[in-house]
Structure formats: structure tokens, C-alpha cells
Design brief:
- By secondary structure, the protein is an all-alpha fold.
- It is built from eleven helices and no strands.
Length: 258
């Protein structure tokens, strides 16, 4: 059974990561048509990708959207988790379900719903603001879940002692609660940033004209003549920039569970 499980796991991992390896190799492929196996290797496409104006603008947009959505998620996710863990009130379970629901729904459903809400119900023009709000809806979940798990393990005795000694609500949070929550919030924020940075489905429905993130740039340039090598380079960069925050978030979570 152990050998069978190891074989199946290895086969699944091979299926997942072989295409990524092919993309990495193709980013050095000398053929503009991505012939396989590569007739030769070159770093020419990396040089062109790193000075591509459209790519750099899309990268800046992705970073700005991800940072903004993460900031909103940290604020609202922390407040929601504290309310749901520390207080008992009517509809508490319903609120908890509604907070987690956006990440469980198919992305296309969330995108269509937000598109209709922004354009039809609120009369807003799609753009940077609507994109940030859309990303924040699912980024909140990662921060909320991390904070909830940490708060559930934290004893409220220290907070009560702080209040007994005359500390106000914000002083207690700053000196007692936040230091214990810090690593969980950092891990949740890193995960939220990674999710937002490479999101494409919800982005397609909520970005509007003139707002192009890096995943959208890749999609728009995949089938343009002579752009395939540059797109492969950008795809590799996107993988790296998505993996780094998730890696550090996983390390933080693992160190907290020791």
C-alpha cells in the first residue's frame, strides 16, 4: 500500500509540474514557434521580456491591485474573525458562511455576480477600484481563516487582564492581541497577495477597459505573432512571484504549529 500510494503521488506530481518545466525550458527556446525539442537555448527572450513596456505596466497594475486587496483583506478579515470568535450573536454561523463562500464559489460565478452588481445595481464604471474590491472579496477569506484559527487557540485571559489593569480596547489589541496574531496575519496576507496576483477569471469580469493585469496580459499575447517566447518568460516570472509569498506563508504556518 505504501509503494502504491507513493507511486500514485509521484505520478500526480509529475502531471502537475511537467508542464511548468516545459514552460521554463521554452523560455530559453531559440525557436520563435516553440519547436520541441528546442533546437537551441538562448536568453534573448528574457532580455526582451524585461524591457517590454506592456508587460511592465501590467506587472505594476498587478502589484498595486494585489497590495490594495491584501490591505483591505487584512483589515476586514481581522475584524470579522475577532467578532466571530470573541462574541456570540444571532446569525453568527450565517455570517461565518457568507465570509467563506466567495472562495468556494466558481470564479466565473463570482465574476458575473460582481460585474452585474457594479454596472447594473451600483452604476459604477469598471476599473481599478472595482477590480480591487472584487479581489478583496476572496482575499478576505485567507486572512479570516488564519486569524480565526489563531484566535481559537488564544486564551482571552490576557486580554481580560489588560482590561482589568485599565487598558482600553485599542491598547489591549496593540499590546496583547496583535503580537499573538502577527504571524497568522502575515501568513494570511501573503496568501491573499499570491491569490490576487495571479487571479484571471474574476479579473476578466471586473477590470474593465484600460486595466490590464499580468495574467490578462499573458492571455492577450499568447497567440500574437512572435510573442510566444516572451509570454513563456513572463509566465515563469508569474509562477515565481506567486510561489514566493505562498512559500513564506507555509513556512510561517508550519513554525506556528510546532
Amino acid at each position: 500500500a505504501r509503494i502504491a500510494l507513493a507511486s500514485i503521488s509521484g505520478f500526480v506530481l509529475l502531471l502537475i509540474y511537467t508542464p511548468l518545466l516545459v514552460v521554463l525550458i521554452n523560455s530559453f527556446n531559440t525557436s520563435e514557434n516553440m519547436k520541441w525539442p528546442p533546437p537551441g537555448l538562448t536568453t534573448e527572450w528574457w532580455g526582451k521580456a524585461l524591457v517590454n513596456k506592456g508587460m511592465l505596466e501590467a506587472l505594476g497594475t498587478s502589484l498595486a491591485v494585489a497590495a490594495s486587496a491584501t490591505a483591505i483583506a487584512l483589515l476586514l478579515g481581522t475584524l470579522l474573525s475577532m467578532a466571530l470568535v470573541r462574541y456570540r450573536f444571532f446569525g453568527r454561523q450565517t455570517v461565518s458562511l457568507l465570509v467563506v463562500l466567495p472562495i468556494a464559489l466558481p470564479g466565473i460565478v463570482t465574476g458575473i455576480a460582481l460585474n452585474n452588481a457594479f454596472r447594473t445595481n451600483l452604476g459604477l464604471q469598471l476599473g481599478f477600484f472595482t477590480l480591487v474590491v472584487a479581489h478583496a472579496t476572496f482575499c478576505i477569506v485567507t486572512v479570516h481563516n488564519n486569524a480565526m484559527a489563531r484566535l481559537a487557540r488564544m486564551s482571552p485571559n490576557l486580554e481580560e487582564a489588560s482590561a482589568d489593569l485599565g487598558a482600553g480596547l485599542f491598547t489591549t489589541f496593540r499590546l496583547v492581541t496583535f503580537p499573538q496574531l502577527r504571524s497568522a496575519l502575515v501568513a494570511g496576507g501573503l496568501l491573499a497577495f499570491g491569490l490576487s496576483f495571479d487571479e484571471i477569471i474574476v479579473t476578466t469580469f471586473t477590470a474593465g477597459a484600460g486595466v490590464e493585469t499580468l495574467p490578462i496580459w499573458i492571455l492577450n499575447n499568447m497567440f500574437r505573432p512572435n510573442q510566444a517566447p516572451v509570454v513563456n518568460v513572463v509566465a515563469v516570472l508569474l509562477v515565481v512571484m506567486s510561489v514566493v509569498p505562498i512559500y513564506f506563508a507555509q513556512r510561517l504556518s508550519a513554525s506556528d504549529n510546532r
